[in-house]
Each structure stands twice: as C-alpha cells, then as structure tokens.
Design a protein that fits this description.
572 residues, alpha/beta, six-stranded mixed beta sheet, four-stranded antiparallel beta sheet, elongated
Length: 572
C-alpha cells in the first residue's frame, strides 16, 4: 500500500539530476563560507595587529571578492536547480494523478465531489513543490556542513569544537518536539482545505439551482463557516511555525553567545591567537545556520507530507487492469457480445445479472428500461469504466479485458446526455488536438449554421458549461466532435433527453448521419430514438427481459409495451 513517503521517493527519479546539482551547490556555499571566514580573519589580523600595507593585502581582498561572487552564484544555482527539480517532480506527480483518474473513470469516482478531486489535483500538487525546492537542499546542507565546520574547528581550538559538538544536538531535539504538534496541525489544515475547496467548487457548479431553490444564503453561511474553520487551522499552523522558529533561534543564539564568551575570555587571557579567535567567531553562526534553515524548511516538508497523504488516498484506489496488449483490426464497425455478465456494486443487489446478448457489426441497438434497470452500467462495462463481477465481454471477437485500453478507446466514441466543453474555442473543443476536416464535421452535425452566426465563428471561446450557446447547440457540437473522429463503436447516453421537439429532430438527423455504417448502442428515453433502432434490448432490475424490434415488442405486449407510455410522454 502506498504511503506519503513512498510517493515522495517515487517522484525523486525524474528530479534526481537537478536535485543533485542543487544539493552540491548548497554544500558548495557552506564550504565557500568557511574559506571566506578564514581569509577574513587572517586579513583583519594582518591589517590591525601586524601593520600590513594595503598593497600586500590586495590578493586576499581580491580573493574575498571572488569568493563572495562565487557564493552568490552558487546560491542562484542552488535555487534554479531546486526549482527545476521541483518542476520535474510536480509534472511527474500531476501526470501520474491524471492518468490514475482517467483509469478510474467516472463510475469509480461517482461518489467523489468533483471539487475535492480538483483541489487535490491543484493545491495538493502545488504543495509538494517546496519539498523538492527547499527542504531537500536544506536537509543535505544540515547533514554535511556542521560536520565539515566541526572538523575544521577542532584542529584550530578543541575547546570551541567541544562547545559546538555539545550544543549541536539541542536544535534537532527541540525541532522534533515542536514539529510533532506542527505536523498534526498541518494534517488538520489540509483536511479543512480539501473540504472547503471541494464544497466551494461544487456549490459554484450548482449555483443556478441554489438560486432557484432560494438556498443561496444558506450555502453562503456554510461556506463562511468552513472558511472560518480553515482560517483557524491555518493560524494554528502559523502559531506553531513561529514557535518552532523562536525555539531554534533562541538555542542557536545561546550557543553562539557561549562560544563568543568563551573565545572572548581566552583572547583576554592570551590563550588563543586573535586570527584563530575571530575565525571561530565568524564560523559560529555558520555552524548553526544549516540547522536553523532546516528547521524553517521543515514546515515545507510537513505541508508536503500532509498534501501527499491526500493524494495517496486517491492513488490507492484500485484502477482497472491495463495490462491488455491485443489490438483490434481496423474496421468500419465492431461487434459486441456479452456472455453471462453480472455486475454488483459492494454488498447491494446486482446491477446486472447474467446478461447475454450479441450485437452485430453495424447494428444500432437501443437500451430501454426503468430507472436503475442497469442501462448505464452496461455502457460503463463496454467503455471499460468498470469490470464485470462475472462473465465475459467480447468486442470484435476479442475479450475486452485482453485489449490494449488506450488503443481500444481510440475506436470508441461516447456521446453523453449533457455536453461537456473545455474553456477554449469551438474549433479546439471539436478537434480535441486531432487533425481532420472541421467544416465537414460541423456540417454533418447540423452545427455549421449557428457557428457561422457567432461573432468569431469557430474561434468563439466556450466556457466549461458551453456559455453563449443553447443546450441543443451544445449537443450538436458534441456530435461534431464525434464525427470529427469516426469510430467503429458509438455509445450514446440519450443525447436528446433534455431537448425540445424541434431540436430533438435536428439532433436526431445528425445522430443518424453519425452512426450510419457503425455499431451504435443508445440508452433511449425517447420514442423517436427507439423506433429507428434496428433492435431494442429491454432491461428490468438488472436482467435482460426482452429483445426485438419496436413492432415485434409491441405485438408481444410484454415489459416493453408497459414502458411505451413513459417513452411517449418524456417531453420537456
């Protein structure tokens, strides 16, 4: 089972090279600082106590200038390399999350709030970045530089080295004690942010319904209360962060003061040379600086860990196996066969029970039945969003489970009830990054007329909800998207269910154009759709109860005849 640390480690592979460069640059800064302290101490000693002329000190001064420039360059390099490592890790994480969400599909994520998923894919992924950019270089510097300074200090003055060695463990000790409470606060903060972000995005999506039902003010009060909870959690984290920084600064200052007092008295007593004493005093802040920086950046690690735990919850959800390798041959239409297929969600009743049927290539089949009969489950099975609990599904005489999933999806077109768009132009929403004849697709979908009337034609921008166009126009654009990439297997979740009679006829003609010569499976709620189907499958309580043409089923007077009233009366 994946955990937060394992996820962080897995992301290290694409970021390995720039991270090594960032760590090397951070360590180089510390080593350069030791050299600066040594040259500075001996230069001041030569100028003040030995009366050295400026000309004789010029090489040391030029060396110092070069070292300061090198230190600045290493600092910039460490920051740029850390940023590059963070970007690579972030891209790898985002790609992994998106691939997993796509693999899970809409059925497995049906119980999740879309806002919560969006929050995880944006805020949680962004919170991982400081872990790579700041925490890992700081941790590496804190692991190496104090030891390097201690090794330099001991030959110069063992007593000061003993003070360094004795006080060094105090900072990590108090860092851990304060950090435990901060880590718990970070986890609560992220849980609060996830609730707030998910609820707010879902509320915005349903804003029209909230206003119509006069529930907008109530929703405002809920969001205000959740935002206040998040504010309190954030302030608790900041309070602990400031407390941690105060503790680290206090003990580091005390340790530096002890070193300064000890060196000062020994200088007064003549037990240590001035150059060595000044060198030790200049090194003392640098000895504790890496630990202080790691203490500050430890909050970036805790925030990243809390965010990663939110992502692990999503990544741990089992996705359908994607190890199929078979590819279907190119064909204008694909046959579909169900062999005693059953599906059960959890401990509830079977959504489909022992369903068997065969759809010939090029056949148009309509699925009808009452709500909960299993129609949507059947389409989800064919699309690969879920797997059957029992039985087998064949597409084009090949087991669906053995097919290469990505290759199979390229041979599948799904047209949902409601149009879904991206915040982009009409051309981009129809083409979806593919090449083809855009004008022909719009004409075939009966969408060319209203697109020409728009101010910018195909370059008109649409919002995610298709702002600026009607529901019927949106459905025609969805059909144009399907026609832009002809697929041998078409799944339609009754795209005319929410349209008026005139628009339904127009869209219905476009659908007839699209499915001509292809295999089509339609969830039907309209009589017009059922009449034009080659065959009708009647589902009831997860079972296939009837099969035949419209006229055949009406003549039998069975379950289908009982559904005719609802089909005929289903008009907006």
């Amino acid at each position: 089972m994946l955990d937060a640390q394992a996820l962080m480690t897995a992301l290290g592979e694409p970021a390995r090279r720039p991270m090594r460069l960032a760590v090397a640059a951070a360590l180089g800064q510390g080593l350069v600082q030791i050299a600066i302290a040594w040259i500075t101490a001996h230069t001041i000693d030569a100028a003040v106590f030995k009366g050295a002329a400026l000309a004789t000190l010029m090489p040391q001064l030029l060396t110092l200038a070069a070292l300061f420039a090198l230190k600045a360059g290493l600092a910039a390099l460490a920051d740029l390399a850390g940023f590059a490592a963070a970007c690579r890790a972030r891209r790898a994480l985002f790609a992994r999350l998106v691939d997993h969400v796509v693999a899970l599909g809409p059925v497995r994520l049906a119980g999740e709030a879309s806002g919560d998923i969006a929050t995880r894919l944006t805020d949680a992924v962004a919170a991982i970045e400081p872990y790579w950019r700041r925490w890992l270089p700081a941790r590496a510097a804190a692991s190496v530089l104090p030891v390097a300074i201690l090794l330099v200090t001991l030959p110069v003055d063992w007593q000061t080295g003993l003070v360094f060695a004795a006080t060094l463990p105090l900072l990590p000790l108090f860092m851990i004690l304060v950090g435990r409470a901060a880590e718990r606060a970070n986890q609560r903060q992220w849980a609060s942010l996830a609730r707030l972000g998910g609820h707010l995005l879902d509320a915005i999506e349903g804003l029209a319904d909230l206003v119509l039902n006069r529930a907008a003010q109530r929703e405002v009060a809920i969001v205000r209360r959740m935002a206040d909870d998040y504010r309190k959690e954030t302030m608790a984290v900041l309070r602990l962060a400031f407390l941690s920084a105060l503790v680290l600064e206090f003990f580091a200052t005390v340790a530096i003061a002890i070193t300064a007092v000890l060196v000062g008295f020994r200088l007064m007593w003549g037990d240590i040379a001035f150059a060595d004493g000044l060198f030790l005093l200049l090194l003392a802040p640098q000895f504790y600086a890496p630990l202080r920086l790691m203490g500050v950046e430890r909050h970036a690690r805790m925030e990243a860990t809390a965010a990663a735990e939110r992502l692990v919850d999503l990544l741990d959800r089992p996705a359908p196996p994607a190890n199929g390798t078979l590819r279907l041959p190119a064909a204008p239409a694909l046959g579909v066969r169900f062999d005693r297929v059953s599906v059960r969600y959890g401990d509830g009743p079977a959504a489909l029970a022992d369903v068997s049927f065969t759809i010939a290539p090029g056949e148009h089949v309509a699925l009808v039945g009452p709500s909960g009969a299993g129609k949507s489950t059947l389409l989800a099975l064919i699309a690969g969003f879920i797997e059957p609990s029992a039985g087998r599904i064949f597409v084009g005489d090949q087991p669906l489970a053995a097919l290469d999933r990505r290759a199979f999806l390229d041979q599948l077109t799904l047209v949902p009830q409601r149009a879904a768009f991206f915040d982009d132009t009409i051309a981009a929403n129809v083409a979806m990054g593919r090449s083809g004849d855009l004008a022909a697709a719009l004409v075939a979908a009966r969408a060319d007329g209203f697109v020409r009337r728009l101010p910018h034609g195909v370059d008109t921008c649409l919002g995610e909800r298709g702002l600026g166009i009607s529901g019927g126009e949106g459905q025609r654009l969805m059909l144009a998207r399907a026609l832009f990439r002809p697929a041998p297997l078409v799944l339609l979740d009754e795209p005319t269910a929410h349209l008026d009679r005139a628009t339904e006829q127009d869209v219905g003609q476009a659908i007839a154009t699209m499915i001509a010569g292809r295999t089509a499976i339609t969830i039907a709620h309209r009589l017009a759709t059922v009449r034009h189907a080659d065959r009708i499958l009647v589902l009831d309580a997860g079972r296939l109860v009837e099969s035949g043409t419209h006229d055949e089923l009406v003549a039998r007077g069975g379950a289908y005849a009982g559904l005719l009233a609802s089909l005929e009366g289903d008009r907006p």
